[in-house]
Specification:
With 227 residues, this protein is mainly beta. It is 3% helix and 45% strand. The chain is built from 1 helix and 17 strands. Strands 3, 4, 5, 6, 8, 11, 12, 14 and 17 form a 9-stranded mixed β-sheet that branches. The longest helix has 6 residues. It starts with 10 loop residues before the first strand and ends with a helix. The C terminus is likely disordered.
């Protein structure tokens, strides 16, 4: 399901006066309504990820809008509050994006330490992972992680090689875990999306290695639901 709004790309700094438990965003990243197009699903090589039947989704956000942020080559991060219990080995990760540049793009994915209050991104827990040759269009990409860990609270950051017309797809509500209505732009700090109160959440998911398979929330189950 895709939902869209007639928006354009603008960046503006706003001053927030209210006090919140979570960080107060200092800017607004405005979004772009994408043309309607079929989604392309890409899955990377899982041969080195171990037995995928013992990998479980710990954060899943897939109910996408027909809307994205034109990142212009800069990294954009979302707060992922996962269902992990303590520190767990990262099994796989996923991100969704629009690439309207007309050519291929690369992507760079990094997972950073976070906390329940969404402090600024801390040390790197996984990545950076580099993916080359991603196609143009509406894309959802799944990759196994050769290394790294996740815990209950992480930031997941993605940046793209294409400067023009390329960025993360908005999605809400979260299906596994949860995410606050904010994102993090290393250029300025915490940001919201707008106008119109769009949720500052993106198509992302992470899975972890577990010692025993679960009955339904397995990586195979997660992949099957997107076919």
């Amino acid at each position: 399901m895709r939902r869209g709004y007639p928006l354009s790309f603008v960046f503006s700094v706003v001053v927030a006066t209210a006090a919140f438990a979570d960080p107060t965003p200092v800017g607004v990243l405005e979004t772009i309504l994408a043309p309607d197009m079929a989604e392309q699903k890409i899955a990377g090589d899982f041969s080195y990820a171990g037995d995928p039947s013992v990998c479980s989704p710990q954060y899943v956000n897939q109910l996408m809008y027909q809307t994205f942020v034109n990142q212009r080559g800069f990294e954009l991060l979302d707060d992922l509050h996962t269902d992990a219990v303590g520190t767990e080995p990262l099994c796989g990760y996923e991100f969704g994006f629009y690439n309207l540049s007309g050519g291929e793009t690369s992507a760079y994915v990094t997972i950073y330490d976070n906390d329940a209050a969404d402090d600024a991104p801390g040390k790197i827990l996984a990545g950076p992972f580099t993916i080359q040759g991603l196609p143009s269009g509406l894309v959802r990409a799944f990759y196994a992680a050769p290394s790294g860990v996740i815990d209950e609270d992480v930031w997941m950051g993605v940046k793209f090689g294409q400067f023009r017309g390329t960025g993360l797809t908005l999605a809400d509500p979260v299906l596994f875990g949860f995410s606050h209505d904010l994102a993090y732009d290393p250029r300025v700090g915490y940001v919201n999306l707008g106008p119109g109160g769009l949720p500052a959440n993106f198509v992302m998911s992470v899975t972890s290695h577990l010692p025993v398979p679960t009955s339904t929330s397995t990586w195979g189950f997660l992949k099957a639901r997107y076919r």
